[in-house]
Automatic annotation (TrEMBL):
Pfam families xrefs: NMT1_2
GO cellular component, one term: periplasmic space
Transmembrane annotation, as ranges: none
Recorded coiled-coil stretches: none
Predominant subcellular localization, coarse grouping: periplasm
Lineage: Bacteria, Bacillati, Bacillota, Clostridia, Neomoorellales
Protein name: ABC transporter substrate-binding protein
UniProt organism field: Metallumcola ferriviriculae
Length: 336
């Protein structure tokens, strides 16, 4: 079954999760603001600039009333867009290639990049001061879902470091994402690939230790990007421009503020995360240059993503950069 068809099969589920559009009052003009239904692939500190835009009134300043919902999963997130249950989605740009390769009439288009590196980390049972990737040889790695971007990046990083995944390293891939931390803590695997805040929480609890960053090792990628349909760009260019302007302002805010200030700003969205963990996570992400400082998805990053996908055997046909990437709004935002 094709990815596009699978997207559409769950459209009804997503429609029930996302609330229909309405109107509010814009903060800067007093005019009616434009409702934007935004679906994120998951809810994560990884997307800190987005939550800054929400809590600091940046979207409102640009005349937008952004309604956020988590779709929980790549297929479901793209389905939200294709089924008109969301106006904009935040997820990996690889999904736009899948849609394009299904000969969709209304393409999914990347218009503003948020994160520029993978957000996962390699965690060991004991601290390793001088880690080298050959230490994984003959070991068991508790990995991510086959075909998902985190697993593709992990296997590509292993390849770049002289390892042959699944031959030199045994990779367990039948553990659900939310259970990876508990499974590792209970004794499964020698190493585990984890996202934040689980990786930092494991360190604080003394159950695991971050020894490598997949984001640093793999280089810059359009890891999470704001995506909309080509028809929405054609029909509502002013809305997409306002959204991109707000994203750029939030990126600049994050780039110019301290970790403590970012933590204060996004705390309303992560009330269950204690401050020590929050600061550790934000510091780790900021140190490795996780967040893009502008919304342009550049061509070099796009081709790096292609290389990751090709190695994983997940890219049947290359999709021209210009077909699924629109930098017009990002460039205008930066020129204002």
């Amino acid at each position: 079954m094709s990815k596009l068809i699978r997207f559409l099969l769950v459209a009804g589920i997503i429609a029930a999760l996302l609330v229909s559009a309405g109107c509010g009052q814009g903060a800067d003009t007093g005019q009616e603001s434009t409702k934007v239904r935004l679906a994120e692939v998951t809810h994560s500190i990884f997307y800190a600039p987005q939550y800054v835009a929400l809590t600091q009134g940046i979207f409102e300043k640009h005349g937008l009333d952004v309604e956020l919902a988590a779709a929980f999963g790549g297929d479901k997130t793209m389905t939200a867009l294709l089924s008109d249950s969301a106006d904009v989605i935040l997820m990996g740009s690889e999904a736009t290639m899948y849609v394009a390769n299904q000969d969709a009439n209304d393409l999914a288009v990347n218009f503003a990049q948020l994160t520029q590196r993978d957000g996962s980390f390699l965690v060991s049972r004991q601290p390793i001061e001088n880690f080298s990737w050959d230490m994984l040889k003959g070991k068991v790695l508790l990995g991510q879902r086959k075909g998902g971007m985190p697993e593709m990046v992990s296997e590509y990083v292993q390849y770049l470091n002289g390892l042959e995944p699944h031959k030199d390293v045994e990779i367990i891939q039948n553990v659900e994402f939310q259970n990876l931390g508990p499974a590792f803590a209970s004794g499964t695997g020698d190493f585990v690939q984890l996202f934040e805040p689980v990786a930092s929480a494991m360190e604080i609890a003394g159950k695991g230790y971050v020894i490598a960053s997949m984001g640093k090792e793999s280089g810059k990628l359009p890891y999470t990007v704001y995506i909309t349909k080509e028809s929405i760009i054609d029909d509502q260019p002013e809305t997409i421009q306002k959204f991109t302007d707000a994203v750029y302002e939030a990126q600049q805010w994050v780039n110019s503020h301290s970790i403590a200030e970012i933590a204060d700003a996004i705390q309303p969205h992560f009330s269950d995360t204690d401050r020590e963990t929050m600061l550790m996570v934000l510091n780790r992400y900021k140190e490795q240059d996780t967040w893009a400082t502008d919304p342009i998805l550049d061509e070099e990053e796009y081709h790096n993503l292609e290389a990751v996908m090709e190695y994983a055997g997940e890219l049947t046909n290359k999709v021209p950069y210009e077909k699924v990437v629109n930098t017009e709004f990002a460039r205008k935002a930066m020129n204002k």
